[in-house]
Specification:
ABC transporter involved in vitamin B12 uptake, BtuC; two-stranded antiparallel ribbon
C-alpha cells in the first residue's frame, strides 16, 4: 500500500506538469487551430530563467518563479508576433513546419548560449510529510495544488471575463468576431501569453521536482503534454487536466512494475489508440463543418 500511495503522488506530480503544458496546447489550438510544438521548449527557457535568477542574481525562490513565468509569457508573445502572425492566412502545414523550426531554434540557441550540459538548480520546495504512512514531498503537494488552482483560474478567465469571452468568440468564428469589434490580434497574443505563462509555471514546478535544466528538456516533456491534450480532448481545458493526470499516473505505475524503459512507448501507444478509436479525446466534442 505504501508503494501504491508513493507512485500515486509521483504520477500526480508529473501529471500536473503535463497538464499545465497541455493547457497551453489546448488554448492555442482552440483559438487558431495551431499545434504549437515550440510550446515545450518555452518550459526550457523558463527553467533557465529560474536557474539564473537564483544562482546568478541570488533572488528569492518566489521572485525567481514569478520572473520565470513573466519571461515565458513574453517569449510566447514574441514567437507569436514574429513567427505565426505573418503566416496567419497561410496553409496550416506552413504554421506546423514553422512551429517545429522554432522548437529547433530554441533548443540549439540555448545550447549555444548556456552550453549543452545540464544545470543543477537548488530545490525550490524542500521537506516531506507523512500521508497514510508514506513520505510525500512538499514539492509534490505544491505541484498538484498549483496545477489545480491554475486550471480553476484559467476556467474563470475563459468563462467569466471580457477577454475570455473574446477568446471564445475568436475560437468560434474569427471573421465574425472581428466584424463585431473584437481585436483579434490582441486576443490571440493574450492567448499565447496565458498559455506560455502556464508553461512557465510548469517549468518552475519541474525544476522543483527534478532540480535541473538542459537545452532539450522541453522536447519529450512537450510531446507527452501533447499526448495528454489529445487524450483529454484538445481544445478542452478540463480535458487537458484529465489527460495530464492520466498520462502521469500511467507512467508512474508502468515504472512501478519494472517497465520504466517502456514508459515513453506506452505514452505514444496511448496516442495511437486514442486517434484510432476516439479522436476527439475523453472530453472533446466533435467539430462540425458547414458545407
Amino acid at each position: 500500500m505504501s508503494l501504491v500511495i508513493a507512485q500515486l503522488f509521483n504520477g500526480l506530480q508529473s501529471g500536473s506538469i503535463f497538464a499545465l503544458v497541455a493547457l497551453g496546447y489546448s488554448m492555442v489550438y482552440g483559438i487558431i487551430l495551431l499545434l504549437n510544438f515550440a510550446h515545450g521548449d518555452i518550459i526550457m527557457v523558463g527553467a533557465y530563467a529560474t536557474y539564473y535568477a537564483i544562482l546568478m542574481f541570488d533572488l528569492p525562490p518566489l521572485v525567481a518563479a514569478v520572473l520565470a513565468v513573466l519571461v515565458s509569457a513574453c517569449l510566447g508573445v514574441i514567437i507569436e508576433k514574429i513567427a505565426y502572425t505573418p503566416l496567419r492566412s497561410a496553409p496550416r502545414l506552413s504554421l506546423l513546419i514553422t512551429a517545429i523550426g522554432i522548437s529547433f531554434l530554441l533548443q540549439n540557441g540555448s545550447q549555444l548560449l548556456f552550453g549543452a550540459d545540464s544545470k543543477n538548480i537548488p530545490s525550490l520546495v524542500s521537506g516531506t510529510t507523512s500521508i497514510l504512512g508514506t513520505n510525500v514531498s512538499y514539492a509534490a503537494l505544491t505541484t498538484i495544488s498549483v496545477s489545480v488552482v491554475s486550471m480553476v483560474a484559467l476556467t474563470f478567465l475563459v468563462q467569466k471575463t471580457k477577454m475570455g469571452k473574446a477568446m471564445r468568440a475568436v475560437s468560434e468564428d474569427m471573421g465574425a468576431a472581428q466584424l463585431m469589434g473584437i481585436n483579434v490580434n490582441r486576443t490571440i497574443s493574450f492567448t499565447f501569453a496565458v498559455g506560455s505563462a502556464l508553461a512557465g509555471i510548469g517549468s518552475v514546478l519541474y525544476v522543483s521536482a527534478y532540480s535541473q535544466a538542459s537545452p532539450t528538456m522541453g522536447s519529450m516533456l512537450g510531446l507527452k503534454a501533447f499526448v495528454a491534450a489529445v487524450l483529454g480532448g484538445i481544445g478542452s481545458i478540463p480535458g487537458a487536466m484529465v489527460g495530464g493526470f492520466v498520462i502521469g499516473l500511467i507512467e508512474a505505475f508502468v515504472s512501478a512494475i519494472g517497465l520504466s524503459v517502456w514508459k515513453d512507448g506506452v505514452v505514444f501507444a496511448i496516442l495511437i489508440v486514442v486517434l484510432l478509436f476516439k479522436p476527439t479525446g475523453l472530453l472533446g466534442k466533435p467539430i462540425q463543418e458547414k458545407v
